[in-house]
Amino acid sequence: MGGVTGGLTTLPGNDTLENHRLAHASKATGEQTRVFSLQTDIWAAPRSDAFLRYNLTEGRPPISSLTVCYRFNIQQFRDGVYFLSYATGDHMDNALLLYQREETMNFYYNDVESANMYLKVHDTLGSWHHHCHLLNFPNYRLYVDGELSGEGQMTGEKRPLDTNGTIYIGQEQDSFAGGLDRLQSTSAFMAQINVWDSLLSEREIRSIAKCSTNLFGNVLSSDTDDVEVVNVGEERRPLASLCEKSDEFVIVPEKWYIGPSEKFCSVSNSEVFTPADDVVNEQLFNETRQFLEQCGGKSYRLLRLGATDRVSDGDWRRFKDGAPLSYTAWAPGEPNDGPKSDCIVLKKSLSKWGDVDCKDEYCFSCLKNKDKFLQIRGLCQQKEHHTRFLLDGYVNARPFFRGYYGHSMYMTKEGDWVLRDGLANKTLAAMTKRRSLTTEYPLGRRQWTVLSPFCRHFVDDVVEISLSACATDEFTCADGSCVPGSVRCNLLEDCLDSSDEENCNLVEFPEGYHGHRPPPGVTFQDPLLVQPTVNIIRFSNVDDINLAVYLEFEVSLAWTDRNLKFRNLKMNAENKLSKEEVRKVWVPEVEFLNVNDGRLKELKKSLFVRAVGEPDPPHFNDVKMESPNANTLSFPSTDTVFPASSGLMVQRILYSASFSCNFQLFHYPFDTQACSVFFELTSATSLVVAFQNASVEYRGRTDLSKYNVGPMTAAIYDNEGQDAVEATFQLERRYSLLVLTIFLPTVLLLGIGYSTLFVKLALLQKPMADEADGSLPDARRQGLLVPAGGFPLQSLLLDNALRVNGSSGVEEKAGKMRVLKIVVLF
Description:
Blueprint: E1 4-5, E2 8-9, H1 14-28, E3 32-38, E4 51-55, E5 65-76, E6 81-87, E7 96-101, E8 104-109, E9 112-113, E10 119-120, E11 128-136, E12 139-144, E13 147-153, E14 166-169, E15 187-196, H2 202-209, E16 220-221, E17 228-230, E18 233-238, E19 249-256, H3 258-267, H4 278-287, H5 292-295, E20 301-308, E21 317-318, E22 343-347, E23 353-356, E24 362-367, E25 374-377, E26 388-395, E27 398-403, E28 407-411, E29 417-421, E30 426-431, E31 444-450, E32 462-468, E33 474-476, E34 482-484, E35 507-508, E36 528-543, E37 548-559, E38 565-567, E39 575-576, H6 579-584, E40 590-592, E41 595-611, E42 641-642, E43 647-660, E44 672-681, E45 689-691, E46 695-698, E47 707-719, E48 722-733, H7 735-755, H8 761-773, E49 792-798, E50 817-823
Parallel strand pairs: 20-24, 36-45, 36-46
Antiparallel strand pairs: 1-2, 3-15, 3-18, 4-14, 4-17, 5-11, 5-15, 6-7, 6-14, 7-8, 8-9, 8-10, 11-12, 12-13, 15-16, 19-24, 20-21, 20-22, 22-23, 25-26, 25-32, 26-27, 27-28, 28-29, 29-30, 30-31, 31-32, 33-34, 35-38, 36-37, 37-43, 38-42, 39-41, 40-44, 41-43, 44-48, 47-48, 49-50
């Protein structure tokens, strides 16, 4: 009985078949395997006549279950990497197609694409990998380097594969045994290409991937079958060598100090190299032979290595991560300078190390890390994967940089850096030279002169192209180092060369922008909508006599200019425009209609952009493809770009003004006055520019000296074809204050004065006479009340209404009249 494993049905007797295959492989493998070179020359243009071809034997029964395995080492990407193409006729040119695009695996089965699976695979250049595909309709599995990477269900009609077709390796067939396209080809080394009409087990797949065995396919085996080789190189290599992993490096033949050396490798997404075993150390020594003239001189010291004991003498650690060295190759008597020599060099005459002063200049090498890459930006690539570059080998005794898709940067014999497109077979540009005492490299953002038209650039245009390890959401400094994109144009120097604060224009003006013409509304037929806000800062004076109100207030107008884009907007901030941008951009104009005697003064004016939405997704092309200047590029595309809908233009003007107000005083002092600020749009009629959502605000004290500030409203009116806003506020008179300060004292004085009309004149005259001749006894003893500082007023009161303290010596006599001196204080 056949079993079921992960959705793939195994064949009856599969264990026996597996053991037989492994036993047979162990006898037949030997130490060699055929390795094919399919268009591996990265300097040659792609071609459609380089492939392996194999015709299946007629009469073989259709295949219901099959396994396809192969080992490969990609040298270059084109449209894709086409591993295997099997066609049985013009109507079935994709009976089976296995190909890789970027970092995903794709396949057709019986001319139906299985697009519902995401199959992630390795996309590194120059590294060996192994794939195994197991197909048993509708089940599919993919193994990468011996491990399950993805699985899923195929679509289409269930039927076995016919076996009367032709297999192509390294090309896609667009028709039976033809229809080849040079860009649908493969640039890679390939080996161990095998097809079985059964499903291999995981143990078998893992054994093949680890180079433990070399199982031969019973439908196709590139090691045993007579495969037709067309314009493809072939050699035999030890099988184990395809699974060996070792460090690789690139020597930089420039005598630099330690700082520039570390920076070069770091900007190249690498580190200063240090060998980790004898084999690699010997390889490094042998490779330095070609640079003896540039790096050797008269000294026995040749090449700086990436380790130091600067922290603790004798404790040697890597520059990059501070990890201790697990391998050293000291020459006899080395290290010998103690704390004075904290760096390591490879000697010139033998593959041994010595310690030296870190302050000296030496050549150096960088680790070639194939999993890390640089990105070139400014070439208007269609996909981000197309921007990837690697620090590679040498051209004209200098390191060069090569792209995943045929581009390369290298130094010519004349000392010029050029950018070449290998797929198009043309040189695109040459790097503009700067005055420098050292050899320059194309890392960072550099100016290039166009030699062949590309993108939107013409010959002799000067364009900015960058090469760096910066991610898409990072900003590339001019020297190639990276900082977060959020710090771009934040008024702080985050790049060491301060380039993150250069070209900080906020607004991107399109060609043909007119600052005198209002931008369109939501559609070109709709008016532009402007949102007005009146913010009253202070009530300077409320003049009842002249019927006017004096204010300090701010008018804010907000609108969306759909002709513009914005760069590097900061959230929750006022992104102010430069003077030049203010001069160019369109702004609405208003006129106040109820100003009193023309008393209107503009105190302060500002124009800024408020971020109200998300920016566009980061673009993988680092340099903007068009520019206001036809010959230069102004904006790196690592700038965060906001579309028009995500940026709200705001004009804010602070005024001091006097406005007329019709005071209604009939209910004084219990009156409430309604005053307003009235203004209209004068930029255009309401068919072109209109107000919406008007509002008025006041955050100051509501209790003024004479009034309380009441409710406020804002309304939009049509004023003879132009929109106008009336911001109304209520002033409630503080009547309680008037009662206490004016009305109550007045009533009291009137009452006192009126009470004197009921006092007999004779009674007033006698006390006054006694006081004049001094016969009146002591005032306190006589019952006179004279508070200090008082104003005396003579009056008569009933004696029984007065109680005098007995301690004063005055007896109480009911019913008698006494003369009192009453003091009224104001």
